[in-house]
Amino acid sequence: MKQLLSVFLILYAIHSSKAQENEEALSNIKDQMELIDGYIEFDTFYLDPEEFLDKMADHGAELNGFYEHERLKKIVRKVGTRKADVLTTFYFWNDQLIYVNYKQRPYLMTTTASGQKIPDYSRSFTKYEAKHYFDNGEEIKKEEIGYAMDEMVLEEDFLAYANRMKALLDNKFYNRDTYDALQGKWLFVQNTEDYIIFEGTIRFNFYEGKFANRLKTRIDEGVLECFFPMDDRIYRYKILDLNSNILTLVDLFSKEEFVYAKVE
After folding, report:
1. Cα first-last separation, the chain
2. What is the mean pLDDT of residues 205-215?
3. Helix (H, G, I), strand (E, B) or coil at 254
4. If DSSP states are collapsed to H, E and C, what string results for 181-250?
5. Which helix (H) or strand (E) holds 178?
6. Lowest mean pLDDT among 113-117, 138-142, 184-188, 251-255
7. Which of 54, 77, 119, 171 would bridge 63 by S-S if both were Cys, CB 3.0 to 4.6 A apart?
8. Interior angle at CA 85, CA 81 and CA 90, nearest 5
9. pLDDT at residue number 15
10. What is the pLDDT of residue 13?
11. Is 188 exposed, middle or buried (0-12, 13-18, 19+ CB in 10 A)?
């Protein structure tokens, strides 16, 4: 009996200690969120839908990252589905996810002149909201308000998604000068019917004047990495030269050199 009581007291002490740690962590998170919301001089960077979606949204999508003192503090993502806007806000502190606010906002209905009821995509209301608090990579609290829409799959792995979006934004933010210089159309000097176009972090390839494919890109220490969405293959090119007129890339696998001239 005494042994059983001792085990119970130990488990109770562990549980109480963990609960106290979580309360302290929640208090810190709320203080950090208040500081982030108080910043007034954010550097705002965005991703085009093609940069962060694998398929296009029914009614538009946008994702903005907010940087303060060269570090990402907040991501705001909006995706327009067939029946609702999904609005998700991510907060970061010291490069770690601390809070996620997730909302499902169904579109309000409007009546046309003929009496037909259709969705008004400019007006919506919050039907469901979930608040997720994270500490050291673990979710320590979740609050839900309202009821989720039956036809929508609830997002669950916010931590992995937030880190993936952060990586995309950080890549664009910290290599912003290189990406700015890459934007536009570049003719392959050995065959001017072939050219590439950079829009944001997307590379479009054209062969003999016809569209061939598009690749997502990232830059790692002067190396341009190009890859297809949902594909493990990565094409790596050393950026040998990049200015307002000339782009020279070296394929790190074949060692072949490609020279492009800027045309627009």
Report:
1. 83
2. 95
3. coil
4. HHCEEEEECCCCCCEEEEECCEEEEEECCEEEEEEEEEEECCEEEEECCCCCCEEEEEEEEECCCEEEEE
5. helix 176-182
6. 113-117
7. 77
8. 115
9. 47
10. 46
11. middle
Q: What confidence score (pLDDT) does residue 3 get?
A: 64
Can you tell me the distance from the alpha carbon of 164 to that of 170, in angstroms, rounded to the nearest whole number? 10
The DSSP code sequence of 94-109 is TTEEEEEEEEEEEEEE
Sign for the CA dihedral angle at 49, 54, 57, 63 comes to negative
And the tokens for 252?
A: 């790190």
Q: In degrees rounded to 5, what are phi and psi of residue 49?
A: -50, -40
Question: What's residue 217's pLDDT?
Answer: 95
Instruction: Report the distance separating Cα 79 and Cα 84, nearest Å.
Output: 8
CA distance 67 to 8: 48
Name the β-bridge partners of 250.
238, 257
Distances (CA, A) of 10 to 5, 7, 15, 159: 9, 5, 9, 32
Question: Which residue has tokens 């409007």?
Answer: 110
Q: Find the helix or strand (DSSP H, E) in which 50 lies.
A: helix 49-52
pTM for the full predicted model: 0.85
Closest CA to 174 of 222, 215, 142, 128: 222
Phi and psi, residue 38, nearest 5°: -85, -10
- Distance CA(201)–CA(52), nearest Å, equals 10
